Amino acid sequence: MKIFKSNFRILSLLIILLIFTSCNRDGIELVHDGQTDYEIVFMGNATESQYKSAEILQRYLKEISGVELELVDESSQDLNKNKIYVGNIKGEDLKQQEIAIRTENKDLYILGGSDKATKYAVYEFLERYLNCRWYAPEVEKIPVSKIIDLPALDYVYTPDITTRTVHSRLFYDNPDYAEQQKVTQESFPTYVPSARVHTFHKFLPEEKFYKSHPEYFALRGDQRLPTQLCLTNPEVLAIVKDSVASLFEQYPQSKVISVSQDDNRQHCQCDNCSKIDEEEGSASGTMIRFVNEVAANFPDKMISTLAYQYTRKPCKTKPLENVLITLTSIECDRSAPIEEKCADFANDLVGWGKLTQNIRIWDYTTQFTNFFAPFPNIHTLQPNIQLFRDNNAKWVFEQHSNNPSELFELRSYITAKLLWNPDQNFDALLTDFASGYYEEAGIYIKEYIDEIHAKLMEDKDFFLFLYGDPSEAFSSYLSPEMLSKYSQLFDDAEKAVAKKPEILARVKVARLGVDFAELEASRKNFTDRYRLLIPNDEGKKIINPLVTTLLDNFKAITAKNNITLMNEMGFTVTEYLANYMSALEVIRMPNVAMGKKVVTITKPKKYAKEDPMALTDGALGGSSFYANWLGYEGNDMEVVVDLGEPMDINTISLAFLQVTNHVVFFPEKVTYSGSLDNEHFENFGTINNPFPLTKDSKVNDIQFFKLNFEKRNTRYIKVRATNKKTPYWHHAAGLPSWIFADEIIIN
After folding, report:
1. How far apart are CA 195 and CA 342, in angstroms?
2. Mean pLDDT of the residues in the chain
3. Where is the F5/8 type C domain (predicted)?
4. Are 260 and 198 in contact (CB under 8 A)?
5. Each residue of 331-385: pLDDT tens digit?
6. For residue 18, is it within any domain?
7. What angle do CA 170, 175, 176 make, to 5 degrees?
8. Between vectors from CA 264 to CA 570 and to CA 665, what angle results, nearest 5°?
9. Are 552 and 634 in a shared domain?
10. In terms of Cα–Cα distance, which of 470, 594, 579, 480 is closest to 541?
11. Residue 676: which pLDDT band, with cuts at 50, 70 and 90?
């Protein structure tokens, strides 16, 4: 009985305490039936940014309720009104990015540890408690209600990732939208503008130094090449220090400069550099020692460098306190979270964390060779960002496409949200965007996203590469069966919003990824649905109406939405469509080589399954070397086509691909010859490359090497394409170059 009385007294005290707490922490009624007894108060010494934060709150409260709350500074408060305080009125000890939203004695406090955090706090309040949404620039959903009731609030949050960047022009071009999503508007805040990444060639330009001082550059084999710098050459260090000092003088407001390798793996292997790298257990050894020497001269500035490709593995030497390590995940398989599929990167992240607290993550979220390729990595965004956060990365740069790409608005929004709060409910976040941005069509687009990710997850061996191609997935998540299913989902999505032109336009943009995949599948002549030519009622081959429709839609939608680029190399939508039309012209040409046997005399190395029959299979290569191109690395291409019987011909044409940053060049020349016995060949003629390689050459292009000649009777056609040596000024100097060829046309 005593125990019962004791417990009863404790319970009574808890109830009294709860009642007392409730009385002091009651909810508040900001607006009721179009009336309010609240005013918005900002600090008397408020900055312009703080005042704007108060204005933002005032504007949205009016939009929701129709009531305009008065905006006053501390000295003008009406003692008879309750308050909404915006800004750190009480001077609380808040961290720079900390926000707080609380109610006290019927007043509401929206606080931030800095001007920027105050604005974030306002947007967080509007979103979290009043259900406002900003899905894209100019696309917001604001509820309407004559009543705004709030429960007692006591919300405090400090983001673990303090510099949050999403490489998307939605944020770069729209500062308000960047603030609404709480991301850094600039991709490289406080950096020297001309020295943000890959700076070695800027400090010591090849054009200025290479011929007179080859010793400044990387030793590769027995030759100095201007691919990277020799980091143990004291004159190189002196020049870089002088260049850094000059740039900081030129941009005195800048706090960070990049002293980092160029975008290739061709680092110096001289005795001095190799000795240091061996001692350090990584090629990052010479880099960190070099960068530390530079950083020591600028103690009040930050020197950024890359842990990238050959320097990704941590060394033994600790970076100085003013050295920022930018760790990149470019090699990682995106089919699953980095921790599952890229353990080496995760280990390197831990290793660098033991050496320094100054780590910036440079992560990647799209397929850079094909912006519009369906790229089912959305389910990896959250675990990857959590991995970075859990390893104390305070600065995360998510490199999206910047320019429009597959599901561009959705990806930009979700990535920003996860950088702010990596632990929120991901499925709820995705569902909220889909239903908010695409409205009634959202359920179908969400189903598409779920379906394509589920299909990829079934294929445990698929490597989802940042520089891949849709053709790699035609036996996986982009199979003809799945493509038809995705297309039907988008048909349903369009029907659902057919009477809403603005929303329908958004759905059509979202559909571009599937449309692009269907166009690329049609090049392969997979099925009756996905092929370039089909027979009409008279049996004549005509262009597949599906292809015509897809091309027309792609052209119209990209033009309407100012979408101009297909990949990071500058390959334009206009060029893509022109190349596709050329392919349609080629495929309609009479071609006696179609399906004929091809024997390769020299050995191909990659793609098209190294099968020389790719040259006569009727499936045409696209703008990426994965797409049905037969590749030769460092050797000439020499093949023989057997027409099966002697016949009269007077035209031979063969297409070649150029992707200069991937060391794929047009051949120097192509020679065609013929024979009746496959032993004695007559030279029919040579086509020299009409576009010799220069620094200004088109990065991504397709050219047809066509030869017209007097009619000859022949059975065997020999093609020899002469490979080009990688020029010394190219970032892959010293490495063999590639030739990629597809579809020989003989008439």
Report:
1. 30
2. 93
3. 610-727
4. yes
5. 999 999 999 999 999 999 999 999 999 999 999 999 999 999 999 999 999 999 9
6. no
7. 100
8. 55
9. no
10. 594
11. very high
CATH number of the CATH domain containing 117 = 3.30.379.10
Give 14: exposed, middle or buried? Use CB within 10 Å, 0-12, 13-18, 19+: exposed
> Rounded to whole angstroms, how far apart are CA atoms 615 and 628?
9
**Segment holding 147, helix H or strand E:** none
Measured distance CA(126)–CA(140) in Å, rounded? 12
CB atoms within 10 A of CB 64: 21
* Residues 604/405, Cβ–Cβ less than 8 Å: no
When divided into structural domains, the chain yields a total of 4
Query: Residue 252, class by beta-carbon neighbours within 10 Å (0-12 exposed, 13-18 middle, 19+ buried)?
Result: exposed
Q: CB count, 10 Å around CB of 668?
A: 16
SS (H, E, C) 368-403: CCCCCCCCCCHHHHHHHHHHHHHCCCCEEEEEEEEC
Same domain? 33 vs 53: yes
Specify whether 555 is located in the same domain as 613. Answer: no
Give me the phi and psi of 431, to 5 degrees please.
Answer: -65, -40
Q: Are residues 192 and 279 in the same domain?
A: yes
C-alpha dihedral (38, 43, 47, 48), degrees to nearest 10: 20
HSE (side-chain half, CA atoms, 13 Å) at 671? 10
Distance CA 64, CA 588 (A): 60
Residue with tokens 């030769």: 632
CA distance 602 to 635: 8
Q: Which range has the worst mean pLDDT, 37-46, 160-169, 327-336, 482-491?
A: 37-46
Residue 207 lies in domain: 188-317
